[in-house]
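Entry:
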Amino acid sequence: MNHSEISIGDITEVVTKGTTPSTYGMPFTDSGINFIKAEALNGDVTLDRNGFAFVDEKTHEKLKRSQLRVNDVLLTIAGANVGRCGYVRQNELPANTNQAVGIVRVKTDTANPRYIYYHFKNPSTFSMCQSIGGGQAAQPNINLTMLKNFKICLPELDQQNSIVKVIASYDDLIENNKRRIELLEESARQLYREWFVRFRFPGHEHIKIIDGVPEEWEKTTLGEVAITNASSHKAKELPENINYIDISSVSTGRIEFKNGMCSVDAPGRARRIAKHGDVIWSNVRPNLKAYALVMHPEESDVFSTGFTVIAGTKVPFSFLYHFVTTDSFVSHLVNHTTGASYPAVRPPDFERAELLKPTNSLLAQFHETCEPNYELISILDGQNRQLAKARDILLPKLMSGEITV
């Protein structure tokens, strides 16, 4: 495959970066125009909407430099995750972005924008970005001049298109599974709200509400119906090989990846054990909502002590998971954080959360309805990890010409 080396600046209309509206006294809003933060760039072609904020139309118009267009390639250029990339599609527009995000707008007669995105996603490019960005002082960053001068070995356009077609087929399968997962989880979440928030559960017409609580329901705390950090590995007693899950491995509701390693190389925080149906919740910055439901863990899965592991004792995991992921529960955690620069909560903060426990028969009925959703979600998650693994093995070989299409 013929490649010509060329700089990013030579194949782009624009190389710029976003603007943070608060710099100019313009506030974020609860809804409106998408504002894509660096946290949304998770390395997947689908931007993580948990990393979105919002601005109003007036603010969006003022921030013209950072208005995004379809097929823009995004790159984190400041912070610990320098080099993480993203790709803008029509369903995310209109949108804006902040100053930690570089915007690469490709000339489509020269290069396929999706190919340039895959170039930045290539592990070798990411490593290069990390080494350049990490060479700075306290705040790793890549300036726009550096970004424009990045060199890329670019094949002919038709070859770029062929490579994109192959890799994108994996992304499309992953995205389809993610859509199915979202629908399955939203279905269960809506049922939780209907039964346990709005009190429109089966047979509710015949149940008295006394002081705002359905008859036979119990006012209690999370610590009375669940246990935190039930088991941990002792030092030097880890399995020989482990799958380490730390906070960076977890997004909102998902374990995105596991770090395979020998136990002798494992960090000291690799201690927690989580069993099927347990919920892991990051102790640090709970407003970021780094939590996940653990389904069918492997024996070699080991979790960081940076998580609180919550196991239901008097409620099924389906109810427990929904309770500890409500906005009100997140607010409870945020309100109990300590430490200004490193706000964190402790297991007792989880346990003190007030909870309204329904009857056992209603809990069993809810679990019977929702458990199949989470079993299927677990299967789809596993498929996505395998697809991503295969894609990430194939990507550098296609980009280098080791494999031709």
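The mean pLDDT is 91.
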